[in-house]
Amino acid sequence: MRGELGANPIEAVLNRFGFWTLVFVLFALLPTALRLVTGWGEAIRYRRRIGLFAFFYACLHLATYVVLDHFFDLPAIVEDIVKRKFITVGFAALVLMIPLALTSTDRAVRRLGYVRWQRWHRLIYGSAVLGVVHFVWRVKADHRVPSIFAAVLTLLLAIRALAVRRHRPGAAAS
Asked: Is the pTM of this model over 0.85?
């Protein structure tokens, strides 16, 4: 168990939290794709919980960056966000997740109304894209793992896009 974090343990922890954030984001998108492709909708009831796990890991990722990597040096953090594009898109991905986490209760669904709540929760698609871009831009050498995430996300988005197109009025004629 000792020494598994390597020469830069902060970077290793950051990378692990970021990795698990993306895993949970993609898993949160999976139930809808499964329902659209197979008709099996049982996994839908776990989607919110999975999304909250994604947000939890994103917060751990950010906390590690703010606390351990930058020791609460807010001017340096802001400079980093502005200067380094992979951090900019990662931060934007997290910002898009905040309203999702805040409205992931039954009470929020009732208060917003299901249709409006559902529109808000489509922000996950933008967050997922930005998260994968963050990962791709962050990795300097071996892009195999980020490419796998990008391919999975592309497949999930394609399934969603095809379903939306199929259900649009007049889509059957085209």
From this structure: yes
Question: Within its chain, how far is the Cα of 164 from the centroid?
Answer: 21
Q: Does the pLDDT at position 134 exceed 70?
A: yes
Token pair recorded at residue 135: 């990962």
Task: Dump pLDDT digits (tens) for 144-171.
Answer: 999 999 999 999 999 999 988 887 765 5
Place of tokens 């669904």: 109
Token pair, residue 57, equals 């890991």
3-state secondary structure the chain: CCCCCCCCHHHHHHHHHHHHHHHHHHHHHHHHHHHHHHCCCHHHHHHHHHHHHHHHHHHHHHHHHHHHHCCCCHHHHHHHHHHCHHHHHHHHHHHHHHHHHHCCCHHHHHHHCHHHHHHHCCHHHHHHHHHHHHHHHHCCCCCHHHHHHHHHHHHHHHHHHHHHHHHCCCHHHC
CB 13 within 8 Å of CB 25: no
